[in-house]
Design a protein that fits this description.
single chain, two-stranded antiparallel ribbon, 4 strands, Fic-like fold, globular, two-stranded antiparallel sheet
Amino acid sequence: MTFPETQVICDGMGVSGHSVEDIEAVTGLKKAWQWFFANTNAAIDVDTLKTLNRILGKYTVINAGSIRTIYDEPIRVPLQQGKDYYPAVPGSEAEIDQRLKEIASGKNGLLTAFELFSYIAKGQFFNDGNKRTATLFTNIYMIQNCLGIFSIPVEKKMEFYTALTGYYAEESNKDKLYDFLGSCCVTPLAKIPDKIKSR
């Protein structure tokens, strides 16, 4: 989907050639970002995590905002070479909340942000929208700690998926993922146009 098409959808209109699900996904992301900008001081906890998934997945995610509790239809994430990653059923909300707070209490700046992202993305806590939720959640931490903006450049999408699925497959690939995130996915606040920073 192109930027102009995304803009048209965000303006409340449909775009030919795209499914209703695609349009609803963009609309959900827009509403989640609106909530994000109105709540940049939100707590780094499981309630914020659930809220983001509930908003962005309102029309596209089964049981949006609810932590998965069953394994009757396991989540499957395609990896490389025809393999799949099947994440376990998440722990309790209390366990996830505790882990999020433990990670966020670290004083390692970007490494802490990347740890939050990878924990949420690999945990697959929701039926869908996990990477979107992880990205938004990570940005709350980034903004609160003046670290910049975390986003995946469109032109780096395949490299991102390669690094992320490599981490899904083997925990030992975490450093490769973090190297990629640090070199390609962080925009320092100094590089953000003043008209955006002032909003």
